Amino acid sequence: MRLQTIFGLIIVTAAVSACGQNRGAAPNPNSLATGGNSEEQELNDPNRSTIWDVFDTANAEQVTNVNRYLWTASLDVLNFLPIQEVDPFTGVIVTGYGTPPGGGRQYRATVHISDPALAARSLSVSLQTSGGAPVSAATARAVEDAILSRARQLRIADNKF
Q: Greater confidence, 7 or 22?
């Protein structure tokens, strides 16, 4: 017990003393020429990194809480399209070109789920055709409606309504 206490005190002392190692360093000649404080410039340096940068979320990739029912429903409804990319952390599904059952035109879809709520505002579907022809708003709306309906079915089947 005593050895653990002594060892802990040594580690704390070393950590605290390491915080002030550069205090007695010679001043930076560039800071004297510009009239600035070297310590202030060091703190404002954009290339500076510290242990606390691990916890910095400002530069982290955008992570979204994705509604699992919308995610599963999107994959179910668009199962005739080959999946090219999926990212469950940002809520993006990108498919390749495929022909829907009973259809003659090839489509590709990009789905973005931007909110954890099971709502229309959480879902964005973008459709493209292989020939470059525009996709009607009614077609895109029908795909969104089919995904939302399937998501509601999955939620009801899960007894979480």
A: 7
| CA nearest to 97, candidates 124, 121, 129 | 129
The H or E element that residue 94 is part of is strand 92-95
Total Cβ atoms within 10 A of residue 81: 20
Angle at the Cα of 134 from the Cα atoms of 131 and 135, rounded to 5 degrees = 105
C-alpha atoms less than 13 angstroms from C-alpha of 76 in its C-beta half-sphere? 16
- Average pLDDT for 17-41: 54
Domain-located, residue 60: no
Regarding whether 139 and 105 lie in a shared domain, the answer is: yes
What would the two tokens of residue 48 be?
């500076």
Query: How many structural domains compose the chain?
Result: 2
Spell out the long-range contacts of 124-132 with Cβ–Cβ below 8 A and sequence spacing 24 or more: 125/74, 129/105, 130/97, 130/105, 130/106, 131/105, 131/106
Note if the pTM is more than 0.85.
Answer: no
Residues 64 and 114: their CA atoms lie apart, in Å, by: 6
Amino acid identity of 75? Answer: L
Whether residue 113 is contained in a domain is answered as: yes
